[in-house]
Write a structure and sequence with these properties.
Length: 122
């Protein structure tokens, strides 16, 4: 699997709304920075994901306009735009923003070690 493959797989698994699908793609000590807080480790990240999935019902998450800033045999970094759409309190809502992801290779497998998402004003 390449970093590009991992990013695609990550997007697809995020849209299952099942953290058990996303979790194998994350480094044990991954750090996530979202607009509403920072999360370290799979347990904290799981709570953040599940809170979002509870708030945005039937969310569809998309990553686009990916630019790879650095890539070698063990580390890769990309920036991108993200979009989401789903039901919030019974009404269709959508939004988006910018993201940065850092991937590292551990024992031959690429994992997400950092994600930073920031929302853009509506």
């Amino acid at each position: 699997m390449t970093p590009e493959d991992l990013l695609c797989e990550y997007e697809q698994r995020t849209n299952t709304h099942q953290f058990r699908e996303v979790e194998p793609l994350l480094a044990d000590d991954a750090i996530y920075w979202f607009s509403e807080g920072s999360y370290q480790g799979k347990d904290e990240i799981k709570q953040a994901f599940e809170k979002t999935w509870d708030f945005i019902q039937n969310e569809r998450y998309a990553i686009e306009n990916v630019q790879w800033l650095a890539k070698d045999e063990t580390v890769a970094v990309c920036i991108y735009q993200f979009r989401w759409q789903g039901m919030v309190e019974g009404r269709l809502k959508q939004g988006g923003g910018r993201g940065t992801s850092v991937f590292q290779k551990f024992s031959g497998d690429w994992k997400v070690t950092h994600e930073h998402l920031s929302s853009l004003p509506h």
